[in-house]
Amino acid sequence: MTPPPAFPSLAPATLAPAQAAPALAARDLRHGFGSTPVLHGVSLSVEGGEVVAVTGPSGSGKSTLLHLLGGLDTPQAGEVWWAGERVDSLGTQARALRRAGRVGLVFQHHYLLEDLSVLQNVLVPALLTRQDGQERARALLRRVGLAGRESSLPGVLSGGERQRVAVARALATRPAVILADEPTGSLDRANAEVIATLLLDLAREDGAGVLLVTHDERLAAHAGRALHLLDGRIVDA
Ligand SMILES: Nc1ncnc2c1ncn2[C@@H]1O[C@H](COP(=O)(O)OP(=O)(O)OP(=O)(O)O)[C@@H](O)[C@H]1O
Ligand SMILES: [Mg+2]
């Protein structure tokens, strides 16, 4: 008796793990200012749950790269993808809405809105994406040690406290991607350590992919891998 026919084409497809898109991807980014080229073709990808450090000398283009990856600026050439969607080709407004839902930004200077309360600042990304973020925002503020300060204005907070608000805001919509540009650069050592740990712990809990620019070796040590930027290209560290 002949054996029943196998279905080789079905088995591997059913068994293969689902291929999730990377949290963040860039292909051949090129950018410059005036006649000065800064990035000469940068490609990278960050998976969900991964922490990647970006290092490089001052002026090498780290902040320029993060601005492009965060959709705050449009590359002169190349592609930016968030969670499987190409976003560099979107209009400014569509991109801003996608950013609010998918990307958390933490910069050296926190850019809080000074006329809004602590809680309202954390709620801004949720409002843009029409989510009811109240519960999540309050929980995040508790996690960063600011329970009870929800209705304070940013102006009365210390530098470290303001950066904690920025961390809570970056995580508010459970973004796929966290972009951090020297997030602890303006803080003293003790505060820097606490805030960096909070940011990375919260990102890990949500499975976000993190790209982190830092001069702080101890902070870079938290990353699973490092990308070194030199003369507008990523080189082997
Ligand atoms: N808006 C701008 N207009 C003109 N030139 C700019 C602008 N932004 C950045 N540059 C130039 O691009 C180059 C890269 O700057 P960038 O801020 O990306 O460097 P960086 O690696 O982040 O440096 P640092 O470590 O000092 O923060 C620099 O030469 C800078 O002067
Ligand atoms: Mg910079």
UniProtKB/TrEMBL annotation:
Its EC number is 3.6.3.-. Residues 24-237 form the ABC transporter domain. InterPro entries: AAA+_ATPase, ABC_transporter-like_ATP-bd, ABC_transporter-like_CS, ABC_transpr_LolD-like, MacB-like_ATP-bd, P-loop_NTPase. Keywords: ATP-binding, Hydrolase, Lipoprotein, Nucleotide-binding, Transport. SUPFAM superfamilies: P-loop containing nucleoside triphosphate hydrolases (SSF52540). It is an enzyme of class 3 (hydrolase). GO terms for cellular component: plasma membrane. GO terms for molecular function: ATP binding; ATP hydrolysis activity; transmembrane transporter activity. PROSITE patterns: ABC_TRANSPORTER_1, ABC_TRANSPORTER_2. It comes from the Bacteria. Gene3D superfamilies: P-loop containing nucleotide triphosphate hydrolases. Belongs to the ABC transporter superfamily. This is Lipoprotein-releasing system ATP-binding protein. It comes from Deinococcus budaensis. The lineage of its organism: Bacteria, Thermotogati, Deinococcota, Deinococci, Deinococcales.
